[in-house]
C-alpha cells in the first residue's frame, strides 16, 4: 500500500508565543510524522511588536524576509537582515524585536529526527550537544535566498517536504564545514539559573513579586539575581516583570473584548490609572486606543484557511 504524505498545518501569525508549563514555546509540527514546523511572523513597528525571551526543545532556523530585527541569544545581541540566516540550538534563551519599520520573518522549527540515523548520530547530535554551540549566523547566497522565498507560501506539496529537508541539510553542511560557526562558549550554569527565574516570573507575573522571591525560587541571592537579569535581559528583575506584564496585557487587549480594567487586574496591576500610564509608555498609546488600532477581530483567519486547504489537498 502506497504511503501518502501526512496532513499538514502551516501558520501565518503575529508572533504571539504559546508556552507550556515550563515556559517553553509550544511548536505545532506539520504533522506528527514530519517533525518540521514552517511559519511566518509579522512584526508591526507602530505596534512595538516583539517576541519575549523564551526557549524550546526544537532547533530553529530564522530568516528575515522583509525589514530587520534585533535578535538576542543567551544575552548576545545582533542585527538580522535578509542577507543572513540564523540557526538557534535547542533550549537556548532567545527573543527578538523589530527595528526601524515593519518586519516579516520565516521560521522553521525542527528536530534532528529529520536526518538519516547515521548522519544524525555521527555529525548532527555531537554538534548540538556541544556546550559551545548555541547558534550559528550564516551569510546567504542568492540561490539560498530564492529557496527561502518559496517557503513563504507553503502549499503542502509533497515535493516541499523534500525541499525543506534538503535545505536544512545544506545549512548543517555549511555549519559543520566552518569551525567559526560552532564557537560560542557559554556559562550554562548561569543560563539554567536565569531560565529558572524567567520561568518563575512568567508563571507568577500576576502576583506581587519581589526580587527576594524571585531569587529565592532559584536558590540564589538578590545581587546575583539582579546581575543575571541585567546580563541576559538588559533589565532589572522588576523592570523585566513589568515588561512581561505589559506584553501579556497587550496580547489580551488585541485578542479579546475584555474590559481594560479586568486586563489590568489580570496581569497584576491594582491601579488602572498606573497600568494605563505604563502601557502608554511602552506602546505609545493608551490600551483602548491600542485595541482600536491593532486589535484582531478575527485572529488567524487566514492561517486557518491555509490549514484546511492543506489538509484537503494532501488527504485528497
UniProtKB/TrEMBL annotation:
Residues 195-293 form the HTH araC/xylS-type domain. The keyword Manganese does not apply. This is Transcriptional regulator, AraC family. It comes from [Clostridium] asparagiforme DSM 15981. The keyword Nuclease does not apply. Gene3D superfamilies: Homeodomain-like (1.10.10.60), Jelly Rolls (2.60.120.10). Keywords: DNA-binding, Transcription, Transcription regulation. GO terms for molecular function: DNA-binding transcription factor activity; sequence-specific DNA binding.
Amino acid at each position: 500500500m502506497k504511503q501518502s504524505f501526512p496532513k499538514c498545518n502551516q501558520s501565518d501569525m503575529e508572533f504571539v508565543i504559546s508556552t507550556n508549563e515550563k515556559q517553553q514555546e509550544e511548536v505545532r509540527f506539520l504533522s506528527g510524522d514530519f517533525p518540521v514546523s514552517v511559519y511566518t511572523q509579522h512584526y508591526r513597528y507602530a505596534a512595538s511588536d516583539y517576541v519575549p525571551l523564551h526557549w524550546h526543545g526544537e532547533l530553529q532556523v530564522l530568516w528575515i524576509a522583509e525589514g530587520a530585527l534585533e535578535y538576542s541569544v543567551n544575552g548576545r545581541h545582533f542585527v538580522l537582515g535578509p542577507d543572513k540566516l540564523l540557526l538557534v540550538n535547542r533550549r537556548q534563551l532567545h527573543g527578538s524585536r523589530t527595528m526601524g519599520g515593519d518586519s516579516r520573518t520565516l521560521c522553521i522549527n525542527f528536530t534532528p529526527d529529520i536526518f538519516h540515523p547515521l548522519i544524525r548520530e555521527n555529525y548532527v547530535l555531537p554538534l548540538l550537544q556541544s556546550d559551545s554551540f548555541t547558534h550559528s549566523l550564516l551569510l546567504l547566497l542568492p540561490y539560498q535566498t530564492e529557496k527561502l522565498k518559496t517557503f513563504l507560501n507553503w502549499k503542502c506539496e509533497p515535493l516541499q517536504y523534500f525541499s525543506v529537508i534538503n535545505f536544512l541539510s545544506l545549512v548543517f553542511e555549511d555549519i559543520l564545514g566552518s569551525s567559526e560557526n560552532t564557537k560560542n562558549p557559554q556559562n550554562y550554569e548561569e543560563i539554567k539559573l536565569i531560565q529558572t527565574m524567567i520561568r518563575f516570573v512568567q508563571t507568577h507575573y500576576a502576583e506581587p513579586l519581589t526580587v527576594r522571591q524571585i531569587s529565592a525560587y532559584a536558590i540564589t541571592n538578590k545581587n546575583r539575581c539582579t546581575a543575571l537579569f541585567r546580563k541576559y535581559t538588559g533589565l532589572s528583575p522588576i523592570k523585566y516583570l513589568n515588561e512581561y506584564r505589559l506584553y501579556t496585557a497587550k496580547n489580551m487587549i488585541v485578542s479579546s473584548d475584555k474590559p481594560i480594567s479586568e486586563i489590568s487586574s489580570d496581569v497584576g496591576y491594582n491601579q488602572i490609572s498606573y497600568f494605563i500610564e505604563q502601557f502608554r509608555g511602552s506602546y505609545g498609546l493608551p490600551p483602548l486606543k491600542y485595541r482600536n488600532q491593532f486589535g484582531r477581530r478575527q485572529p488567524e483567519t487566514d492561517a486557518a484557511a491555509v490549514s484546511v486547504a492543506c489538509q484537503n489537498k494532501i488527504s485528497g
